[in-house]
Amino acid sequence: MVHFVGAGPGAPDLITLRGAKLLEEADVVIYAGSLVNPELLKRCKATCETHNSAYLTLEQVLAIIERAEAGNKATVRLHTGDTAVYSTIREQMDALEKMGIPYDITPGVSSFCAAAASAQAEYTLPGISQSVILTRMEGRTPVPEREKIASLASHGTSMVIFLSAGMLPALQRELLQGAYTADTPACIVYKASWPEEKVLPCTVGTLASVGQENAVGKTALILIGDFLNESFDRSCLYDPSFCTGFREKENAK
Ligand code: SAH
After folding, report:
1. Does residue 163 have its Cβ closer than 6 Å to ligand 1?
2. Is the CB of 118 inside a 6 Å radius of any atom of ligand 1?
3. CA 203 to CA 168: how far, in whole Å?
4. pTM > 0.90: yes or no
5. Comparing C-alpha atoms, which of 131, 32, 122 is closest to residue 86?
6. DSSP structure class, residue 250
7. Which percentage of the chain shows pLDDT scores above 70?
8. In sequence order, what are the residues at sequence separation of 6 or more whose Cβ sits closer than 8 angstroms to the Cβ of residue 181?
C-alpha cells in the first residue's frame, strides 16, 4: 500500500497527526527532498528505507514502490505542503492504478496557508475579496493561455503565486497589466514556517526590487491583493445584528 502524505510547509510539527503516524509506521519513505524538511524523517523507524526523490525520475520512484509492494511493505510518498497543488501525485496515482497497487492520500498544510499565517493575513475579507487565485508564472511547465497572470490579474482578487520567485520582474509586469496598480499591497513569504522564514511586505510596484534586495531564493510565495491592507468590512457571521443557524439576533432576544 502506498500512502501519499502532505508533509506541510516545513515546520516538522505542521504535519497532520495522520501523516505523522503513517511516517512512523512506514517501511519505505520516498520524500521530495528539495522542499520537505529532513527533520520529519526522524519520525521513521530505524529500519525504514528512505529515498530522496529529487534525484529520481518518475520511473525510478515507481520501481522503488513496486519492489516495496512485492515485499509487502508500507510506502509513504511524502510531498511538500498539500498533495492537491503542484505535487505531481496524479501521474503517480495513474501509474499505480495501472500496476494494480492500492494507495490513499493524507492532505497537508499547504504553503499558501502557512504563508498567510506568517503574514498574519486572511485572504477573504468582506468588502475586499471573496476569492483566492492560486497560480504560477510559466516556467518549463507551460501555463494555458487563458490562465496567464495578466488575464487572472483582471479580477483584482487575492492571489497567491507559486514557483515564480525567480521571475519577479516579469511577474510584476504581468500583474500590472490587470486590475492591480503599483500601490496594490504585496508580500513575499520565503520559507514560511522554517527557522529562516522571511516575510517581506511590499507593493506590486516594488515586488522585484524587494525580492532582489533580500536575495529571496526559490522557496517563496508571492501574495498579492488588498487583503493585505488595513481596512475591510467586519464579518456578517459574528455581527450581533445577524442571526445564524446557531445564534439569534442579539436585539431579537
Ligand atoms: N504542494 C506544495 C507546493 C509545491 S510547489 C504546497 O501545497 O505548498 C513548490 C512551491 O511551493 C515553491 O516554489 C514555493 O513557491 C512554494 N512553497 C513550498 N513551501 C513553501 C514555504 N514553506 N514557504 C513559501 N513557499 C513555499
Report:
1. yes
2. no
3. 12
4. yes
5. 32
6. G
7. 99
8. 204, 205
Whose C-alpha lies nearest to ligand 1, atom 24? 220
What's the confidence (pLDDT) of residue 139? 87
What pLDDT does 109 receive? 98
Q: Find the 33 Cα to ligand 1 centroid distance in Å.
A: 13
CA of 242 to the centre of ligand 1 (A): 38
pLDDT at 217: 77
H-run or E-run covering 190: strand 185-190
111 near 133, Cβ under 8 Å? no
Cα(121) to centroid of ligand 1, in Å? 17
First-to-final CA distance of the chain: 56
CATH numbers and ranges of domains, the chain: 2-109 (3.40.1010.10), 112-228 (3.30.950.10)
Percent of the chain with pLDDT over 90: 88
**Ligand 1 contact via 125 beta carbon (within 6 Å):** no
Angle at 79 between CA 31 and CA 211, to 5 degrees: 105
Query: Does 253 score more than 60 pLDDT?
Result: no
Bridge partners (DSSP) listed for residue 134: 160
Of 32-36, 137-141, 201-205, 230-234, least confident by mean pLDDT is 230-234
Show the CA angle centred on residue 59, arms to residues 58 and 65, nearest 5°.
90
Cell of 55: 534525484
Q: Is the pLDDT of residue 252 over 60?
A: no
